[in-house]
Amino acid sequence: MEDSTDRMSQLPEFINHHIMSFLDSPKERIRMSVLSKNWFGITASFPILDFDIRKFEGFISFQSLENGDFIDKFFKYVEYTTSRFCHQNVSAHTFKLITRLWDATQVDIVHKCVELILIKGVQVLVIDIRFSYLPSLLPMYGRVSNKLVSASSLTSLTLHGCELPSSLMVDTIKFKSLKLLKLKYVRMDEKMIKHLTTSCPLLEELTLKICGRDISRLCVYGLQNLQRVKFFTACIVDIIEIEAPNLCFLQLGRICGRAPCLNVASCKKLTTVCYYGDPSPTWKGLADFSCSFPYLETLFLDLPEICKSLKLSSQSLRTFVLHSDDSDFEQLDIDTPNLLSFEYTFSDSDSPFAVKRDSVSSKSRMECHHLGFVDALWFKKLRQFLDKKVRFKELKLCIWTFPSEVEELRTIQSPPFELDHVDLEPDCIRNLSDYLAVVDSVLWCCRPQSLTLESSFPSINFEEWIHIVKFTYEKLLLQEDEGQTNIHIVTSSSSNAKKHFSDLSSLLMALPRDGLRPIITFIKEQVVQEAG
Question: What would the pLDDT profile of 16-25 be if each residue is shown by its tens digit?
Answer without folding.
Answer: 555 555 566 6
